[in-house]
Design goal:
Helix content: 25-40%
GO cellular component, one term: cytosol
Number of helices: 13
Order of helices and strands: HHEHEHEHEHEHEHHEEEHHHH
Main location: cytoplasm
Keywords: Cytoplasm, Methyltransferase, RNA-binding, rRNA processing, S-adenosyl-L-methionine, Transferase
Strand order of the largest sheet: 4-3-2-5-6-9-7
Number of strands: 9
Bound molecules: S-adenosylmethionine
CATH topology of the largest domain: Rossmann fold
Protein name: Ribosomal RNA small subunit methyltransferase A
EC number: 2.1.1.182
CATH superfamily of the largest domain: Vaccinia Virus protein VP39
Distance between the termini: 52 Å
């Protein structure tokens, strides 16, 4: 990326005004316009030069231009067609580096679009952020993506990184942490957004690690759904309806009088390993 091309880009506020991009609440549009802040977010995954980034919801393209400045090739999926002309201008300023897909991120195959080893970076629309993240966390492991760098409402970010015993600890924490490292990389004040949302935000960075052996994602998912579905109840009660769970607790030496929020990620993994893969999920021979 040449300094010349960077200089050619108009300020984001002008881009928004020129294209009449009035923020839509229904589409979760809270734009980031501070280019220094955007550069700091784009730096979280590490050196992106020569790497591919999959971005959800580029909007007027603030984070997108920071990623391009960092040397990444960007594949960006945007649902709001009003943003396409602004993104086309950005594409022209960075020839061959930005591919914009006009679609719903919930409906596209991110892996097919971005390819193996892509980093996922996004200031996510609040209404689909958790669903997309759970989808990426459920990939076959090691996953196709190299890392996730995602902006959430701070409360959701805390639910992803929380340790057991913390009030935010739950299903999302276990699904994020059992085979990945998750941390809050940056807190972002609500006033940084246009328009400002009601709550604070935070960027979570997630890097995959080797999955523990012999543990089925589906089993862990069912186990945590049951355990945290009634988080105030003892495990003896909340896991009653899940075949094999109470027996597995006993084998793992976990007191059934405990509540889900006291059970560590490693303990959930141990119980899921003992439960094994549900018969319905086993490959047919
Ligand atoms: C929080 S804004 C972020 C905009 C921009 N990346 C920024 O940081 O300023 C969320 C963006 O996601 C887009 N969006 C909302 N739902 C979407 C979906 N299902 N698929 C793709 N994009 C979506 C919105 O139109 C909006 O541009």
């Amino acid at each position: 990326m040449t300094a010349e091309a960077v200089a050619k880009l108009p300020p984001l506020r002008e881009v928004i005004a020129a294209h009449g991009l009035r923020a839509s609440k229904a589409l979760g549009q809270n734009f980031l316009l501070d280019e220094q802040l955007l550069d700091r977010i784009a730096a979280i995954p590490g050196d992106l030069s020569g790497k591919t980034v999959f971005e959800v919801g580029p909007g007027p393209g603030g984070l997108t231009r920071a990623l391009l400045r960092a040397g990444a090739r960007v594949v960006a999926v945007e649902r709001d067609e009003r943003c396409l002309p602004a993104l086309a201008e950005l594409s022209a300023a960075f020839p061959g580096m930005l591919e914009v897909v006009s679609d719903d991120a919930m409906a596209v195959d991110a892996h097919a679009l971005a390819g193996d080893g892509a980093h996922i970076v996004a200031n996510l629309p609040y209404n689909v952020g958790t669903a997309l993240t759970v989808g990426w966390l459920s990939a076959d492991w090691m996953p196709w993506w190299a890392s996730l760098t995602l902006m959430f409402q701070q409360e959701v970010a805390e639910r992803i990184v929380a340790p057991s015993g913390d009030g935010h600890y739950g299903r999302l924490a276990v699904l994020a942490q059992w085979r990945a490292k998750a941390r809050i990389a940056m807190k972002v004040h609500r006033s940084a957004f246009t328009p400002p949302p009601k709550v604070m935000s935070a960027v979570v960075h997630i890097e995959p690690v080797e999955a523990p052996e012999d543990v089925a994602f589906r089993t862990l998912e069912k186990l945590t759904a049951a355990a945290f579905g009634q988080r105030r109840k003892m495990l003896r009660q909340s896991l009653k309806g899940l075949p094999g769970a109470l027996e597995a607790l006993e084998v793992a030496g976990i007191d059934p009088q405990r509540r889900a929020e006291t059970v560590s990620v490693a303990e959930f993994v141990a119980v899921a390993r003992i439960m094994g893969t549900p018969a319905t999920d086993r490959p047919k021979s």
